[in-house]
Structure of Elongation factor G:
Amino acid sequence: MRTNPHHRSVDPLTAVRNLGILAHVDAGKTTVTERILYLTGATHKRGEVHDGTTVTDFDPQERDRGITIFAAAVSCVWDGHRINLIDTPGHVDFSDEVARSLRVLDGAVAVFDAVAGVEPQSEAVWRQADHHGVPRIAFVNKLDRAGADLDAAVASIRERLHTVPLVVQMPIGREDGFTGVVDLLRMRALVWADRRDSFEEGPVPEALREEAGRRRRLLEEAVAELHPAALEEFCAESSVSAGTLAAALRELTLGGEGVVVLCGSAYRNRGIEPLLEAVTAYLPSPLDVPAVRGTLGDTVQERAADPAAPFAALVFKVNATATGRLTCLRVYSGTLLKGDAVLDMGVGRTERVGRILRVQADRHAETDRAVAGDIVAVVGLKSARAGTTLCAPAAPLVLEPPSAAEPVVSVAVEARRSLDTDRLAGALARLVEEDPSLVVRTDAETGQTVLSGLGELHLEVAVEKIRRGHGLEVAVGRPQVAYRETVARGVSGLVYRHVKQDGGAGQFAHVVLDVEPLEVAPGSAGEFVFRSAVVGGRVPQEFVRAVEAGCRDALAEGPLGGHPVTGLRVTLTDGATHSRDSSEPAFRTAGRLGLREALRAGAMALLEPVAEVTATVPDEAVGGVLGDLAARRGRVSGSTARTGTTVITATVPLAELFGYATRLRSRTQGRGTFTSRPAGYAPAPAVPALR
């Protein structure tokens, strides 16, 4: 029987592993993390998601909903290796949290459900890891479930992720009878007895030897196809030794040419020790990844993962609480000591590090230093944001920050009590500090505070965080859409006389206006054009400018619903002045009131903002997506076929896009994505001021 060696001393950089746990929601990422913490001695009780007792899902909302929302970092020791682990969210609304984590990780464990195989969000996080060049190993979880099938899950990895799965284990028993795995490298059986935390190692059971031999042969052939040294040995010996296989698997993993596949059941604590051994054997240390590149002005510099090099680190997460800020960072080079001064390249200011913490989700252990390769949290920094580079003041450098996703969904938020307005503004500012994928703005026309994010659940969680964390009652509604009014049919020769006499100097202005629609490019909101056709100096030039200013005043509110007016041309054709009572204010008033009257006399039309939507959807869902766009009054402008997917472009009224992210995901089983950008204005079919 093997014993847990987590108590051995930790050694230098080669013994550090920075990895993330990636997967679709409900594949078992958090349970895998909990079992790793338990087996490495970081916790003394196994946390359960359904009981709300997990370490990494510590936020009340995560425990209420039973899903991971916020990436949580934990640190533990296994077999002389320091493992810095980040449990990432699986829901698509929190994909930006995953991207920020991947930016600072060296490797990852992708967890798959043995029943469902590769699920939609599994594809999304896999593509994110490809983008960041993060080596991965795969863990097929939940082999104890009814319908679990390792081979089907492996086939889906091959087909949907377009990678070469290198299966190094086979299960012993099926579904409820799953008791262990056969290690195909060493050809040994690892069996976990009920209610035991450790496994018994022994020979492969007689009934499984033939199948294990066949699978070992498939593994050797797959590795030999990809690795020259393994191919040479395979040709010479007709087999590949365990040592050559292990070395080849590590190189193939680091190069991204294949993915090592292990299996087990995290809930039943089966398969976690071999997973940890695979993490230390195949995933990279900070020394195995390329030196980080940064810029200083126009020059590009590299910083090796060397504790003696100048300090450089990247902030990937900020927790802004009422009692202070916790800044999570990855140290890429150098050494950080408690009390050190660091340069925040985001604001160009030097700050002092108060404390350095090893993070255990919401619990922390203080340490006196952090070296290259470490993931730690620091206290004392006031201005650092996610994506900020921290470096030694004498050796400035800017590391590439993780890119923030563009928000696609918005809601209007306001405090139910006017006394809480300032508190709400502070709470929103703190939210944006913590999550750069949230955007807060004030609509210049409606005056609403608008919160934008990556999905309805994303915004729902953010608003709930304000309610729980700050004790604020918040009203949430759909943001008002900024409509426009335009001239459909103009008027000619409208005469307006402004005469006012109430003692002293009076006011006199006489104007004749022509108002007509302005031909503009399709989709634009148009402009306002003013010109004068007055001849003979009947209206002096300074009064002409006053009439134009008065007309611009009138554009603020149209006759249909008080919306701004656009897309018209006004011509001053004639006018008259009084030698004593005419003035610029008089002609400005005449221009404002005259144009208002002209707009009421003509025919007006309402314009609504439209957006250009680009949706990427699986081929089998194209019909449903097109039907939904048509129901939203969308006009499809084109579609392009790609491998397995179709890209649809359409122009859709902005008012119809609220809720579209959720609808698109439900119609495409979570695999559809879309982006939108403003595309101007188009005629509205009905007066929406009453909507």
About this structure: The longest strand covers residues 603-618. The mean pLDDT is 82. The radius of gyration is 33 Å. The CA atoms of residues 635 and 651 lie 5 Å apart.
